[in-house]
Specification:
The chain is of the alpha+beta class. Helix content is about 20%, strand content about 25%. The chain is built from six helices and twelve strands. Strands 1-2-7-6-3-8 form a six-stranded antiparallel β-barrel. The protein has a four-stranded mixed beta sheet with strand order 9-12-11-10, with helices on one face. It has a two-stranded antiparallel sheet with strand order 4-5. A hairpin with a 2-residue loop joins β11 and β12. The longest helix is centred in the last third of the chain and has 15 residues.
């Protein structure tokens, strides 16, 4: 009966993966479209690389990506969550938020479709802008954005409306900015302006680290100004396989180095939440795993 249907589990296939400059969750914009300069590609799984599957998609300027919060999958769920922009203490109903901690860890993003590339090895590849996904995120479905029905200019955004337009001033010294590839600078500046810090952290002396495009960007925030302190080339990002996550050997090696440095217990913690000493040892591990000689 209906009760049986309500309790069923539904099998959903991963049709593609996102590839972009975010190797960790820390710093990813809280919504799609906030940083339009962010670039990424959607690469289909081998089973779905038939060019016919995207025929006509090139005629749309924007698409919907339906995806899994792969780093937030949990056994249980809570009816109340604490939206980050509200300071991390105010509780709201999970269905009134876009929190990743949901009964089904599914995300929805509207992104700009820059072009459709047809690769001889990867099949159709979608080049997109403005995504709020981590590298390797599983894509569950893709649909065209229809401006005539998907856009509602008269819509009311509830409690989220009060945070529209929030941004930090970014002080990025020219000598440090030159370390970043020119085609990544605008996107990185936009990400930093969105204030990557956890909402409950306001210590002006605390140094944060953002992993972006193979670099660790370290910064502090004081009186509404984010100041970049250092830029460091990092880890295994450049060597990762195109379609897939880090190999088992890569993960084992990383855990071995974390254990050697006495920080294995923080392996799952976002880099931006580490203390100064933990960050220094983490960066040492990254240097060792990138070039162990």
């Amino acid at each position: 009966g209906k009760e049986t249907v309500m309790n069923e589990l539904i099998a959903i296939k991963v049709i593609a993966q996102m590839h972009c400059d975010f190797s960790t969750k820390f710093g990813i914009p809280r919504q799609s479209g906030l940083v339009k300069a962010l670039k990424g590609t959607v690469v289909f799984a081998p089973e779905y690389r038939n060019p016919d599957a995207v025929r006509g998609l090139e005629g749309f300027s924007h698409i919907w990506l339906i995806w899994q919060f792969s780093e937030a999958v949990r056994e249980g769920w809570s009816p109340m969550v604490r939206p980050p922009r509200m300071g991390g203490n105010t509780r709201m109903g999970v269905f009134a938020t876009r929190s990743p901690f949901r009964p089904n860890a599914i995300g929805l993003s509207s992104v700009k479709l820059d072009r459709v590339e047809f690769s001889p090895t990867l099949g159709p590849v979608l080049h997109v802008s403005g995504a709020d996904l981590m590298d390797g995120t599983p894509i569950l479905d893709i649909k065209p954005y229809l401006p005539g029905v998907d856009s509602h200019p008269e819509a009311v955004g509830g409690f989220a409306d009060q945070f529209q337009g929030y941004a930090l001033e970014v002080d990025f010294p020219e000598e440090l900015l030159r370390c970043i590839p020119e085609n990544r600078r605008e996107a990185l500046m936009g990400v930093l302006a969105q204030d990557p810090r956890p909402s409950y952290q306001h210590d002006p002396e605390r140094q944060y680290g953002l992993s972006f495009a193979g670099f660790d960007v370290r910064f502090r925030v004081r009186d509404g100004v984010l100041s970049v302190c250092e830029v460091v080339l990092s880890g295994l990002q450049a060597r990762k396989r195109l379609f897939g996550r880090y190999s088992a050997a890569d993960k084992a090696k990383a855990l071995q180095l974390l254990d050697l440095c006495g920080i294995e217990s923080i392996a799952r913690r976002p880099i931006g939440e580490l203390s100064g000493g933990q960050l220094q040892r983490t960066l040492l591990c990254r240097a060792l795993i990138s070039d162990p000689k």
